[in-house]
C-alpha cells in the first residue's frame, strides 16, 4: 500500500497545480480585457462544476458497502461516507488526528468519485472568504444547475448557542433559511442518516433506539446560510491571522477549530455553521450535505498552506491527544496512530505507512 500519505501530498499539489493552471488561463483572459471578476469567481468552468456535481449524484446512486447491521439507514455509497464520520466523531475532532483524518477522508472521497463515478477532476475547495460578507451572493449557492443548490426555504426558528445552550459562549442568530432547499442539483437529494446533534428542532427524529442516528430517516436537505457566521469568522483576516500567528500545530488546530470560551467560533466551525441546517449543522452527520467536502477541502488547503511555510518542521507535526477535547484524558497522538475509514478506505498511519 506504499505511502498513501505521500500520495495525499501529491493530491494537494495536483490540486494547487490545477488551480494555478486555471488561474493562469483566467489571467490570460484578464489580460485580454475580460472581467476582473472572472479571475476570482469561476475557478472551475461550468462544465467542470457540472462534472463534479454529477459525480456526487452518481455516488448517491451506487449501492452502499456499510454492513446494514452497523448502519441500517445507509442507502447508498455516499451514505457510507456519512456513516464513518458519525461512527468516529469523538475520535477525529479536537484530537491530534483531526487534520490528517479529514485529509485522508476527503482524499478517499475524491478517489471514490474518480474510480467509481468516472470523475476526471480533483476535489475543489470553496474559498469562503471571497463571499464572507454575503455568501448568498456566491455562484456556489445561487441555486443554478452549476451550484450546490441554494439556501433552505424560510422557516421561523430560533438561533443557536455554541457549544450548547447551557454554555452559550457564541450565539448564532437565525438566518434567512432553515427549511428544505428548493432549487439546483440537490433539490431532490435525500438525507438518510441522523440527525444526532440536530440544530433545527423540527427535523424528523431518527428512530435509532440507541440515539446514534444510524437508522433510515429519509428527509430533505435543509440549510440556513448565515452571513453572520461567515462575516464573523470565515473572512480573509481570520484565515490570514490563523496561518501567520499560530506557529505550532496545537495552537494552529485549536484556533482553527474555535476558542469558544473567548467567543471565537474559528474558521472550521464557521465553515460548518455558515451553511448550518440539517445535516450541515450536525456535528456527527455534517458530511450528509455535499457542502461538507468543499468546506473541508478549504480547511485542508489552509493547513497545506501553513505546512508549506515551514516544510521541514510542519509537514509531520502532531499535537493533542486521542480523545475529544482530551475528555476523558488520554495520551498524546503520534504519527503511528492509525486512520481507518472502514469500507471507504483501509488503515493508514498518520505518517502515511
Ligand atoms: Cu469532521
Automatic annotation (TrEMBL):
<protein>
    <submittedName>
        <fullName>Uncharacterized protein</fullName>
    </submittedName>
</protein>
Amino acid at each position: 500500500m506504499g505511502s498513501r500519505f505521500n500520495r495525499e501530498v501529491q493530491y494537494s499539489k495536483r490540486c494547487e497545480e490545477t488551480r494555478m493552471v486555471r488561474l493562469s488561463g483566467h489571467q490570460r483572459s484578464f489580460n485580454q480585457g475580460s472581467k476582473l471578476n472572472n479571475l476570482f469567481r469561476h475557478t472551475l468552468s461550468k462544465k467542470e462544476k457540472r462534472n463534479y456535481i454529477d459525480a456526487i449524484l452518481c455516488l448517491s446512486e451506487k449501492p452502499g458497502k456499510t454492513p446494514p447491521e452497523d448502519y441500517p439507514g445507509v442507502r447508498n455509497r455516499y451514505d457510507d461516507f456519512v456513516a464513518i464520520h458519525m461512527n468516529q466523531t469523538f475520535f477525529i475532532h479536537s484530537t491530534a488526528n483531526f487534520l490528517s483524518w479529514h485529509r485522508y477522508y476527503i482524499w478517499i472521497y475524491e478517489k471514490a468519485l474518480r474510480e467509481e463515478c468516472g470523475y476526471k477532476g480533483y476535489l475543489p475547495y470553496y474559498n469562503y472568504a471571497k463571499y464572507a460578507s454575503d455568501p448568498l451572493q456566491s455562484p456556489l449557492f445561487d441555486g443554478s444547475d452549476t451550484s450546490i443548490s441554494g439556501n433552505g426555504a424560510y422557516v421561523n426558528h430560533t438561533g443557536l448557542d455554541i457549544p450548547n445552550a447551557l454554555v452559550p459562549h457564541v450565539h448564532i442568530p437565525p438566518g434567512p433559511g432553515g427549511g428544505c432547499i428548493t432549487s439546483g442539483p440537490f433539490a431532490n437529494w435525500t438525507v438518510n442518516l441522523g440527525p444526532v446533534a440536530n440544530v433545527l428542532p423540527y427535523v424528523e427524529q431518527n428512530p435509532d433506539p440507541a440515539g446514534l442516528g444510524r437508522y433510515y430517516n429519509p428527509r430533505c436537505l435543509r440549510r440556513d446560510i448565515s452571513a453572520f457566521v461567515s462575516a464573523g469568522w470565515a473572512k480573509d483576516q481570520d484565515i490570514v491571522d490563523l496561518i501567520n500567528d499560530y506557529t505550532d500545530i496545537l495552537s494552529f488546530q485549536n484556533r482553527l477549530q474555535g476558542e469558544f470560551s473567548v467567543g471565537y467560533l474559528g474558521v472550521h466551525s464557521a465553515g460548518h455553521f455558515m451553511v448550518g441546517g440539517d445535516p450541515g449543522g450536525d456535528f456527527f452527520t455534517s458530511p450528509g450535505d455535499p457542502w461538507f467536502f468543499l468546506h473541508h477541502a478549504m480547511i485542508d488547503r489552509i493547513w497545506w498552506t501553513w505546512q508549506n511555510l515551514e516544510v521541514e518542521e510542519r509537514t509531520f507535526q502532531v499535537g493533542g491527544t486521542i480523545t475529544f477535547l482530551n475528555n476523558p484524558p488520554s495520551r498524546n497522538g503520534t504519527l503511528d496512530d492509525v486512520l481507518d475509514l472502514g469500507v471507504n478506505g483501509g488503515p493508514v498511519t498518520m505518517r502515511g505507512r
